[in-house]
Design goal:
This protein is 49% helix and 4% strand. The chain is mainly alpha-helical.
Length: 195
């Protein structure tokens, strides 16, 4: 039902709320686990990537194909290197970061945005080296670039404030998925409702 209404954010919000009321958890989109459509995952519903604004079907196909061929992504550079950069461009990457679909890569959203340009350049350089037949020291000795990690210099940044993260979710998903701006006031609203 959620997949069939992926373009209607009002209906998705309604169905997500109904799922929560029924005790069915909704897991956020995740490039390490999500597919194009909403899927069932261990008794929960995993948010589909196709319901994220600015993320098209061809980009998702590239993400899923790379993940199925090489396993879950381990870093931002690994992700950028594994997907087709013509389909998964900067706008798509920014949307994935801002809505939380890359939270599983081990960095804060603020850090992911800060190193995005460097990660894209590093991935393009590695793809060019592989395309040109150049072998790195790690390729010669059998150590994959996934295993050795990134050389990215990740700044020590605070995560974006909750309000900003929720605002990005609202703009890209059409509703608040991981929280609500009024969550801090729920106890007060409950008291006022009883008065």
């Amino acid at each position: 039902l959620l997949s069939s209404e992926r373009d209607n954010t009002d209906k998705i919000a309604q169905y997500v709320e109904e799922s929560r009321r029924m005790g069915i958890p909704i897991r956020p989109p995740d490039v390490r686990h999500s597919f194009a459509r909403f899927t069932v995952e261990e008794g929960a519903i995993r948010y589909g990537l196709l319901a994220i604004k600015n993320v098209g079907e061809k980009a998702i196909e590239s993400i899923v194909e790379s993940r199925q061929a090489h396993g879950p992504f381990v870093s931002l550079v690994d992700f950028c290197q594994g997907v087709d950069s013509r389909l998964v461009n900067r706008k798509v990457l920014e949307s994935l970061i801002k809505c939380g679909a890359m939270d599983g890569l081990g960095l804060k959203r603020s850090q992911l945005m800060a190193v995005l340009e460097s990660a894209m350049e590093m991935a393009a350089r590695r793809q060019k080296e592989k395309g040109g037949g150049q072998l790195s020291f790690f390729d010669v000795f059998g150590e994959s670039q996934r295993e050795r990690g990134d050389e990215l210099k990740v700044p020590d940044l605070e995560e974006w404030p909750k309000e900003q993260r929720l605002a990005f979710e609202k703009s890209l998903l059409g509703f608040y998925l991981t929280g609500h701006p009024l969550d801090a006031y729920r106890p007060l609203l409950g008291v006022l409702a009883q008065a």
